[in-house]
Amino acid sequence: MKITTLSQLEDLKRQGLTQTYPDKIKIMVGMATCGISAGADKVYTALEKKIAELGLDAVLEKTGCIGFCQREPLVDVIYPKQVRVSYEGVTPEKAEALVEALQTGEVFAENILCRIDQEDFLIEGKIRPYANPHPPALPGDIPTYEEVPFFKKQVKIALRNCGFIHPERIEEYIARGGYLALYKVLKEMTPEQVIEEVKASGLRGRGGAGFPTGLKWEFCRNAPGDMKYVICNADEGDPGAFMDRGILEGDPHAMLEGMAIGAYAMGAREGYIYCRAEYPLAIHRLEIAINQAEKLGLLGDNIFGTDFSFRVEIREGAGAFVCGEETALIASIEGKVGEPRPRPPYPAQSGLWGKPSNINNVKTWSHVAPIIMRGAKWYAKFGTKKSKGTTVFALVGKVNNTGLVEIPLGITLREMIFDIGGGIAGDRAFKAVQTGGPSGGCIPEQYLDTPVDYESLGALGSIMGSGGMIVMDDRDCMVDVAKYFIDFTKDESCGKCTPCREGTLRLMEMLEAITDGKGEEEDIEKLQDLSEMIIDSSLCGLGGTAPNPVLTTIKYFREEYEAHIWAKKCPARVCKALIVFHVDEDKCTGCTLCRKRCPVEAVEGVKKEAHRIIQEKCIKCGVCFDSCKFDAVIVE
Amino acid sequence: MGNGGQANKPVGKVMVVGAGIAGVQASLDLANAGFYVHLVEKKSAIGGVMAQLDKTFPTNDCSMCIISPKLVECGRHLNIDILTLTEVEGIQGEPGNFHVDVLKKARGVDMSKCTGCGTCLEACPIRYEPQMPEMERMARTAYAKATDEDAVTAIINRHRDKVGNLLPVLLDINRQFNWLPRCALEHVADELRIPLAEILRVASFYNAFSLVPRGKYIVNVCMGTGCFVKGAPRLLDRLERELGIKHGQTTEDFMFSLELVRCIGCCALAPAMRVGDDTFGRLTPNMIPRILKSYVESYGIEEEEEAAG
Ligand SMILES: Cc1cc2nc3c(=O)[nH]c(=O)nc-3n(C[C@H](O)[C@H](O)[C@H](O)COP(=O)(O)O)c2cc1C
Ligand code: FES
After folding, report:
1. In this complex, is the C-beta atom of A70 within 8 Å of any C-beta atom belonging to chain B?
2. Residue % of chain B over a pLDDT of 90
3. What is the greatest pairwise CA distance in chain A?
4. Which of these, B11, B18, B70, B7, lies nearest to B35 by C-alpha position?
5. If B164 and its partner were Cys, which of A155, A301, A334, B302 is the partner (CB 3.0–4.6 Å)?
6. Are B224 and A240 inside 8 Å of each other by CB?
């Protein structure tokens, strides 16, 4: 069936609503890559088996990631006519207990994360309350979704459906207002009006550089030529970031609808999604989504019965970071080596196969439909003066609550890390937060009150980037971190331009010397000089930003570099050449664990007597330190 | 070293070690100044890496245009004696009077007749194949099974009509065999009418491809930032010790290949790794042996099934 009228869309919507909120118990398991690696597939099979065994009348579904990866595997239960409850850290055993409780008609009261007593239908601006948010069986002190600190400060626009719908069912996306925006655009708006709306919303690219999206669309629209392309950048090469994966695995239609709207606005008929091959599940779900939308006439020829046609194709990356850069990405889609080329001409003038093209990030596309439906004014309410709206961050590293968070721009780093992130894991001391991936920088404690927006982070020498936020504690060595990023860019430099190819190699050699205890007097200045040279003379953004991690760590953590160079010490006790492992003889109980685990037999001692580490043999792998239950192994 | 003190007249011979662009230029300058030059090069040909570069810095000149006339001149120069496939073994003496021992390796080609046409290179069967026969048996090479040629043909047909189809084809072949066997690439070159050199250039650019055989299971250890700060380096140490290989290598039984990957999108559950299609999160080094063992065991079962079926 092809949908051509609003009433047909509404029919499908009603069908979707009964499917999403059935009259019987519904159990949903978060099955994105993160959930599966935490064991959600085992939980799912356990649930499936037990439900069949007990003959429970319930629907079992998969859903995307609600964002709270730390507490994965997450299972949600909709108690019909009552409330929805989220369960955290569910094991297969707990899953069986859950089904047993449901079978007796009870509310399962263990492992509860929160209760969800209303759902936000963002697109339509409606709230869908649950009938009975306080069933007596539910313990009284269970927080609501909005009260959980992790969710409290979040505003979910791009992630609006993640964790709430089955990503492989288009009806469920439509149930929550999906494709209404595309309908509105095609039937009621001219392309110019769409562009005006996006411009007025102040939406800026979420892929890194933050270029105003509406403006970019206008360039592309005004470029001469009848064949134009829109491209979705889902290459997400930034290590330590998984926002795009979260959206593609949890709500692929949100991005597709945005792309179709963009294509209409720019006059494009074909689109490409360039997704990295490391995300097989995302690609799989995208394929399903495109198929379903084409069947319903929401993509493909004559969408909604109009004369607008738009087809999309998925292209897989092959593991090259530089292919996230727009000109390299275009070369890669063309089947060539993914090397960037100088701009201008910008892709808006001459992009894919020499035709005007527009590239936006997954998150940018996902913001489009809400902007159209709720209006630019509504969107611009969120955020700061120059950075409007919300953005998605992957909060990872040494925080208590890791996961995907969507925040209005302008909240401070402190709120991100300590309120949403729940502070540093293991009560260690905060040291730095790294934003922007290999192009970004490390921000120290004294700037924790900086608002998160394009300008403020830029002023500190870092960038917003695509949304990786990695928190580090006092056990992370900043020189080592800088070395890590340079190692990354050195490997990923495509080698086309000399400053980047040779420069990163030299930076790496110097940083290696420093961490090996062979640093020399003027090394810090040399690092800075070379860094600035690379920034000024590189061909593309990779080289142009690669030295940022070095520059920011020198700027904010100079004393650590100096400790490595002068005192030949690594204050964080990370750099292998500068540390030694000892046994504290008073604490050692002679349990022999370290001796047994040591891979090179560098520990000697007899049972019940203090052990000793033979320094000549020690390879500093840290196994003894990890194994010791009495804190008797000391690193210096 | 030259001994050219008297009356500014060059006498004696010079040895230049290494025939990259610098060595070639030095030899030419010396030879033109009247010295006899022995140009020693370890590889089979002179020229070094410059020929592989696209442009030179800072003038953006084409490097082949710079180097090729020099190579020709060097090869024809009567005062230059080119010693390829040769290594310096020992040097004695002092400036002005050196004695150098060199080891010149056999080439198996009559240099006086070879025109360097490259036909033998094309026909050589062992260029990308593993050289040890017992290994060859274990690695899945293209066309090892009767159905393999069909598989490659099917892959090519699936993408034949798309524009820019090289990458999707290579990705699928890589998935089929875990690496890109030479014969499959030749097949692609023939069918899609793309020069093999271009295919090799693309294949060697992207990290996902391998031009040497890999094991049955590819162990991808995440070295993304999220995993790095949560102890991925120690995980890698442990894996390298357990498997007895370094990253980038394959175990002798072609069971596992150990590789690094930059983020698999599981950062919230760091450190993470992927074995084949399975993702593991929240790992500690002590969990490694058990995980690897489960694959060895399941492989045994599959083998038996295959033998029985
Ligand atoms: C080295 C490099 C890597 C990049 N990687 C990505 C990436 O992984 N994902 C992305 O969306 N943009 C990436 N970009 C930014 C893109 O070039 C481009 O600006 C962006 O896709 C535009 O989309 P936007 O306007 O929605 O931000 C990268 C840029 C550079 C220089
Ligand atoms: S950093 Fe390891 S999965 Fe992202």
Report:
1. yes
2. 26
3. 84
4. B11
5. A334
6. yes
